[in-house]
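Sat 14:20. Reprocessing the chain from the morning session after the first attempt stalled halfway. Input below, unchanged.
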Amino acid sequence: MSEVNPNDNRQLSDLIAALIDGSITDEQFDHLDQLLQEDPQARQLYLDALQIHEDLPEVAFQASDESFAELASRDDRTTTIRDSGITLWQSGLAIAILLPIAFFVGTMLPLGTNRVVQSPGSQLANSERSFQQQKVSGVQFANLAHARFFGEMPPKIYSSPMQQRDYVLMEGMVELAFAKGASAIIEGPAVFRVVSREKLALDIGRCSVHAPEGAEGFLVETPEVNVVDRGTRFSVHVLEDNATEVQVVEGAADIYGKETTAKVDVDGSGLRLNSTDARRFSHVDPQVAVAVPFKADQYKRYLPDRVVSYEATMSEDGRADELVSVQVQRGGKRYDYPVEDLIGSEVTHFHAQDSHGYLIGDRQLPGVHKSLASDRSIRSGVINIGGSRQPLTESPRLIGNDEAGQYGTPGIAVRFDRPVKNGPGADVVFFELQMFSNPLVGDAFHISPLEFREGLHSHTITSYDLTLESPEALQVQTLYLQKFDKVPRSLAELEAFPSTPVVQAVKFHAIAVGIDLSDLGCEEGAAVDGLFFQDALNDDDIVDPTFIAGFPEVES
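Finished this time. Tokens:
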């Protein structure tokens, strides 16, 4: 087991910096991942930095009166981090991505399973085994939805998992695609491993397996039993006490006892479960398959509808500008929409929060400032919009530009170029800019109809589909914030008041979320002309929309 040396530390520091600024390559990402697995001292360095990172946002972003030296004196681990050669700021920000929930793992993960990670030390105990791990060819992370892992960023879509490695899925869902056509959807919290091209180990949590014709024989290993597919759909639920529930939705599955316990059946041929059969197997009496109620809804056929990814024009240094296309799952089906097919929008009302900037994009403003919100750029927009702690329960008051001194309801209103129809899944895509000092999941905001009527209501978004932890969220090109001496309270004032462009040194990413009009009470097929948006005022960060557009109607 190697010791940490200055060269290793510099290499680790460089990899962290590349991860933060979005320039990290797949090869570098894999190398960073391997370093954290192999070396306990490197891993401990991350964990120590995480402790310090809890105090860094206050120091860096709230201009705390407490000096850095005082912070260091309260936690002498600072010296360890500094002397090791890793820049403290880089470590802290990287951990905001890699380890945002490390301190909660002890309470989130159930006890009693064989391989659950209960502490950072226990995770490092298997470093020699981790060193031998290789990627499993023919197996891919086919899909992720709001997936958060303990101790690492979510893997990139279509990347291969490491063989025999424990993946601790804290929340969200992951779909694995296996070599012969089998697929498994795993729901967090869960601990799983990919054993081979045709074998998945589930220590705790839920998974739903589909093994079509040709994929028979796919195996799910649990602490109590092995479940072998015979051409079917089935779900597996491993409980906190290692008991395993198996529910067969279609086809058949065979259940075998583990070598460490008695056989599930007498002759060793396996217990056959057919469609709608549901059984629980427990170490208390492993020879008895206890019938449990069949629950079809435990089986997941696909991940939740969401914005999956997007493409944008890229600069030479790999940073995004104008939107090219959006990939979205609607009603369980994938759609890839070119930007030309999206239904654009125009800002028709603006009432800002007290802030320092309300326009962002290039140094030079367009002739009509509000056009920043309706162009194709995911890095320019009308930002720091007004808000309310409580979502609207009545129609927003929209004030025209000719009504001097009247500002209306805080927030922004947009009207679509043509009506957006409520179809399956997301009907509208919403982009905003985010940096690592902001909430990783995005700034919360309310969405309301422009005109309330019976059945309609507001809806609040608290977590985005593509977050700062999503590999699909792209870093954008250099930004200029337009600072105003006086707060513009309307579109007319936004256009008229002078502003000064200030370059933004920090790195921003464009994150995105899909909005389902059904969440506002719209009926299926209903047409919507526009929407009203407000920041939720749940923290000091204000939502910064840069692109809002509707999806075309789904053809039946």
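The mean pLDDT is 80.
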